[in-house]
## 1
Amino acid sequence: MVCRLANLGDYHAARGKATRNRPNTLKSFGRGVAISHVIYWDGKLTLMNVASRGMMIARSEVPRPMAVTYAERAKWQQIAKAFLDRTGIVLTAMEAENIEIADLGLSEFEQTGLALVVYINTERVCAKELILLPHQTCPEHLHPPVNGQPGKEETFRCRWGEVYLYVSGEATPNPKAKPPKGREHAYTVWHEIVLKPGEQYTIMPETWHWFQAGPQGAVVSEFSTRSTDENDIFTDKDIQRAPTFVR
């Protein structure tokens, strides 16, 4: 029996949090058709039936959520490298090749996301460079305890440009930053710290925070305890920390 999705709303309702590697279990979908899994395949949504032992029974015409292409990643890596060059920060060829483009699953990289260079991340210490485009925002999140260890403590030191950092505390009147359009609901802390080159601020564990670059963009050095970014908790539930790239 074939079941097709009627519209994008049905697609989102069926998809839930399914991914190619971790399908979502459903009780039923439309007209009483029992659906056990929702997976992605070749960019289409595929529905699978338990009774058919995994046989594909339907493919919708709705493409899967957008991800950054490898060509786009290469472009943003080059731009991030140019920011670092402007700052006077030298990378090895391998470091430049491995600049992380954190799209956060939103496909809004110029508005929400950042580029990162990880120099070291051991059981005790971590050092990174964070590169932001003009007015680009790293969204609100905190670093929770992991395996009995406290959440990450981190110090941000501005190297180039200007950064507007927001943490828990008394809200600052007339803040300089504005949340990305359409995602205002996911920004709840408004105590503002403005960082210019040579200035730094330490964020204690389990502190809600977010930051945005000024009109030129920004380069920020991060020094911290061990980083476990995959465990970060974001206010915006649409965010997926692990990057996804497509051809």
## 2
Amino acid sequence: MMRLLPRSRIICVTRRADVSHLGLTANEARQRRILDRVVGDSGSAYPTAPAAVMFASHFLQARLDGIAEAYGLSHTGDLDVLTDLDRAGPPHQRTPSELAETLLLTTGGMTVRLNRLQQAGLIERLPNPRDGRGVLVRLTPIGKELAEDALATLLDTQAASLGTLQPSEQADLADLLRTLLIALGDTPAFRPAIAVQRRHS
């Protein structure tokens, strides 16, 4: 059985600065320059704090998507399904609705992911004995092996992404983000004063 391994990262040295000591890929180096320009521009019309949050989220997501791609998957969302099933414990199965709720997806979006993963041989759908019309999603042996390997890689990447912060700073950041996430969850739907009218075919 062939073991899937993450691809080697490409270290980039740009004309502007040698970033090889930072372990940055070419794309990450470009993103760093954009971040320095946007967040560091005191005369910008955009508030720097929201821009920094958005860029940090984008950088981390790009790294995680790169890991998923290295494992042969479309994006991190596919890995999320596998790792969630792995965390469920033996027999490593959940219903599609449970997965959708945990991963904050619509049932339609979850179906698309499950179809990809089943086609890759990483999950299987089984009849749900408690629901005659429902199914259970279960990890296959190769899916479990990939999930366990990927989870360790994802955790290491997430930890490394915050490695420049002291433990106390990480705790403060977690508290601030928790406050932000709660506030975002309570934000009502936006209703603009002007909008393009959509044409339904």
## 3
Amino acid sequence: MFIVVEGIDGTGKTTVVNKLAQKNAWIQTKTPNGPEFRSILLDHNNLPRLSQMLIFFADMVDVDHNIIQPNLKMGQTVICDRWYLSTQIYQIRDNPYYQKLQDGLKLTKPDYTFVLDLPVKAAMQRIDSRDRYESHDEEAWNERRMAYLNTRDAIVIDTRDKNPDQVMEEICQKLPSNSTY
């Protein structure tokens, strides 16, 4: 089973993914995963959107071929902190070539995509103390949040007023019965 947890920054994705992976002995990954990809993005934050998209896709191909596919073939459950939906929402917006490129890469499709949701102001307050790649443009954050909320086939979980254990419980209730919280 391949599970992806998505959402704007500050919704608790990383905490929930870490805890679920540990509790269930699932294989855990994220995008961007490779330190080389992350450092390019952080060190060159003025890259054109197309360059950013290609870097993220290169990272996803690496993660897919070296982590996700081999572990799924061995019958493991893989949980990922962000996947191609994030690239679509953050880097692509309205790029007509995105879907063609994604389809051509044949990345593994998640069995379950969970979108953790939180109002933008609350999410921004949660991450104020972090050194982030992302700007604090509230309008852009609202656009991204709405894009996540309008994603077809995603299961949206409101994280407002919930601790990570409650969010984990809600995710596991949506999964087959062998998942715990």
